[in-house]
Design a protein that fits this description.
Length: about 425
């Protein structure tokens, strides 16, 4: 059963295929095929119905591996194998539907499908873990159901009963008789008790592993943006690639002086509140926090995040500047120091985005000329006396109403560039937060 740990990532098809076959769905059909194969050998597949069952099981497993993440597809696709098998064998009439093994097939298929679909409806972790426990128990029970069926069938055949008598004895209405005959053998009782204990042990171990994976996944998302996290653990990992992004840098003015006169715990409390405001605003505008560097914030806005990335980055910066007085008041109420002013720089262009670092330590981030330029835009804020400076690449992509809040400041020579970059600063009086040195 897939959990939220697997959400947002795509495993290789063959891995997903065998996970589905061996762990999640189709176990009853698999057990049924394997036990028939051990009895009849390859001759089992000479029967068209049995060959159809194997093909249907493969098709069902492949479909679930590709499209089984959502609740409704999960439930519907989990019934492919029993449905096709019924269609192929229904010429036998009512006897087919009354057969114990066929009734068990539908019972286990529907029960497991319903549980797995329910686990994909956004239920709390405890519910998903409970479902995982039940699915594991059901899968082990499916094996024993097939085992009881075949043992009873072999017993009937060994007794010399004719086909009609065997068919009647194997009716679902005679299942209780078959089970009573099965447990009459004490060795079978020992097997069932041992199997039940093993099933519980496997189920408990499995939910503990999955719970740990979910906890680690959530914890990872507190240190790395969830979008980055899902890319890192995805099929292609964090393979670096070139993307056009809008990069935003923000820094607290006179932070060094503030740090020197305040206790460390008060500074950390202020930064936590400050970073929380940024993170909420960035997320609200469809951006991603790339990292916190001391008192600085680096964020990126991609074209696939909704409206134009430059427009969303500029709106985010304006929102933070306008909200700075409120943030200062909230920090003061908590007895914490507050930033008097901040600077924000924004640039747009192609950057390298991916998993970068050494073999033992990596960082999913973006780098390139436009990352450096955005940082330089922020550093010009103090010199220009403006709380926010953007590059011409950003300004040219703004909506008219947003562009009106900025004015041209001329060209500046950015370190590492041979030509000047035209910059635009927010118009004085267009934001609530005053800029100070």
């Amino acid at each position: 059963m897939a959990t939220t740990v697997e959400a947002g990532r795509r495993k290789p098809f063959l891995v997903s295929f065998f996970d589905e076959l061996l762990l999640y769905s189709g176990q009853y059909a698999l057990f049924y095929v394997l036990m028939n194969f051990t009895r009849d050998g390859v001759g089992f597949f000479s029967d068209a119905g049995h060959a159809a069952l194997l093909a249907a099981l493969a098709a069902q497993t492949a479909a679930l591996a590709l499209w089984g993440d959502a609740p409704i597809p999960r439930f519907v696709l989990s019934l492919i194998a029993p449905a096709i098998y019924v269609l192929k064998e229904s010429y036998e009439g009512a006897d087919f539907f009354q057969d114990m093994s066929h009734a068990f097939f539908w019972t286990f298929s529907i029960a497991v499908a319903a549980l797995q679909a329910a686990a994909r409806t956004g239920k709390p972790r405890r519910f998903r873990m409970a479902v995982e426990f039940l699915v594991t128990i059901l899968n082990v029970a499916a094996f024993f159901a097939v085992y009881v069926y075949f043992d009873y069938r072999l017993t009937l055949e060994a007794s010399g009963a004719d086909a009609a008598a065997i068919g009647e004895a194997l009716s679902i209405f005679r299942a209780a008789d078959g089970f009573a005959d099965f447990i009459a053998d004490k060795s079978h009782v020992y097997t069932l008790v041992g199997g039940a204990f093993l099933a519980v042990t496997i189920a408990v171990g499995r939910i503990r592993i999955l719970d740990l994976k979910e906890r680690l996944h959530e914890l990872f998302g507190q240190y790395v943006d969830p979008s980055f996290r899902d890319r890192i653990v995805g099929e292609n990992g964090g393979v670096p690639r070139m993307r056009e992004l809008c990069v935003l840098f923000s820094d607290i003015r006179s932070f060094t002086a503030l740090s020197e006169r305040e206790a460390p715990e008060r500074i950390s409390g202020m930064l936590n509140g400050y970073f929380t405001e940024w993170e909420e605003s960035i997320t609200r505008h469809g951006g991603i926090v790339d990292k916190y560097i001391g008192d600085a914030v680096m964020a990126i806005f991609a074209p696939d995040g909704g409206a134009a990335p430059c427009e969303r980055a500029a709106e985010c910066a304006l929102e933070m500047l306008n909200g700075l007085p409120g943030l200062r008041a909230r920090l003061a109420e908590s007895g914490l120091p507050a930033p008097e002013a901040i600077g924000v720089g924004i640039d747009f262009g192609p950057v390298i985005m991916g998993d970068l670092g050494s073999r033992r330590r990596k960082n999913y981030t973006v780098l390139g000329d436009h990352v450096n330029t955005a940082s330089r835009m922020e550093s010009f804020c103090k010199e220009a006396g403006r709380p926010c400076i953007i590059s011409e690449a950003v300004f040219s992509r703004l909506d008219e109403s947003t562009a009106e809040r900025f004015e041209a400041l001329g060209g500046v020579l950015v370190k590492g560039k041979s030509e000047q970059v035209r910059i635009y600063g927010i118009r004085i009086g267009k934001q609530a937060a005053p800029e100070s040195s």
